[in-house]
Design a protein that fits this description.
It is found in: Membrane. The protein is α+β, with helices and mostly antiparallel strands. About 50% of the residues lie in helices and about 15% in strands. It is globular, with a radius of gyration of 16 Å.
Length: about 130
């Protein structure tokens, strides 16, 4: 990551930058990336099983199931969104773990989530275009 920053890119793409790091190092790395974002850099990353602290530090979240979008928005809105679809997270549960568990349950649930996202996106587009 440091080598890439030497070229002063405006956009930084990272594929699982926290893999192999202990939890403290992962949080530190995400904090540094967040500081870069606050200074105007666009940071895009794929990350698997983030801690709750890391999950909540994201500005925007795009969740995929079978390479299809099932959620796009602020991390703080994700659990409420899935609750409106009938999928309620247990109290005090890591949102990222809940979402991973939900998406990995079975194909029927993934299909429901993909279809719901398409319907919600269409509804939002109609709402904003009037």
């Amino acid at each position: 990551i440091g080598t890439e920053l030497l070229t002063n890119p405006s956009v930084i793409f990272l594929d699982e930058p926290t893999s192999g790091l202990d939890s403290t190092s992962a949080v530190t790395l995400i904090r540094v990336l967040r500081e870069l974002a606050l200074k105007g850099k666009t940071i895009m990353m794929s990350i698997h099983q983030p801690s709750s602290q890391i999950f909540q530090s994201f500005d925007q979240l795009i969740l995929l199931a079978d390479a299809k979008t099932i959620f796009m928005g602020k991390p703080s809105n994700a659990l409420n969104y899935f609750a409106t679809l009938g999928h309620h997270a247990p109290l005090q549960y890591n949102p990222a773990d809940f979402i991973m568990d939900l998406v990995n349950q079975d194909k029927e649930i993934r299909e429901h989530l993909k279809e719901a996202y398409i319907q919600n996106k269409s509804s939002n587009n109609l709402q904003y275009s009037t």
